[in-house]
Amino acid sequence: MPVSDEREDVLLLDVPSTGDYLSVLPTATAAVATRLGFSLDEIEDLRAAVNAAVALLIPAEPGRPRPFRRKSGDQPLHCRLAVGEETLQIALSRPKGEPLPDAGSYQWQVLRALTDEVDAHVEDSTTTITISQRRPATEADADTHRHQIY
């Protein structure tokens, strides 16, 4: 999905592929989605989708739960959050390594259930998962009033 022709709002993050740093990705996604007027439920769905994409991209280390440990020499995970006029696009990339899990895996099911569109591709030496989510039409249209604490 193209980013706005008027301006390009893009946040780029390179994060070490360890649990200590991977939590930055859903947090950054939530911050951007909040600014765009997504509802609290939509924000939590995006956080869960980013976590599922990370679990797909970071291969498990034998004997360790994924994605909390990495093998020495692992490359960082790249994240690109692009704000378009109608869409928030989150692209997560890693150097090509082990193939992604089967399309029927739990993480893929989560991604499909929580997002408007998800795509995965391998180009050159990089594997990328791209999540696209339609933005609320305006902040006034966002369903945030249901979640206010009184």
What string gives the helices and strands in order?
EHHHEEHEE
Estimate percent helicity: 25-40%
Averaged pLDDT: 81
Task: Identify the strand order in the major beta sheet.
Answer: 1-2-3-5-4
What does this structure look like?
- This protein has a 5-stranded antiparallel beta sheet, with helices on one face.
- With 150 residues, it is of the alpha+beta class.
- Strand 2 (77-83) and strand 3 (87-95) form a beta hairpin.
- The longest helix has 18 residues, at 40-57.
- Helix content is 29%, strand content 26%.
- It has one domain: Histidine kinase-like ATPase, C-terminal domain (Heat Shock Protein 90), CATH 3.30.565.10.
Write the layout of secondary structure elements.
Blueprint (H helix, E strand, L loop, with lengths): L8 E7 L3 H4 L1 H12 L4 H18 L19 E7 L3 E9 L10 H9 L2 E7 L2 E9 L16
Antiparallel strand pairs: 1-2, 2-3, 3-5, 4-5
Helix pairs in contact: 2-3, 3-4
Short description:
The chain is an alpha+beta fold and 150 residues long. Helix content is 29%, strand content 26%. The model is unreliable at 1-5 and 144-150 (pLDDT under 50).
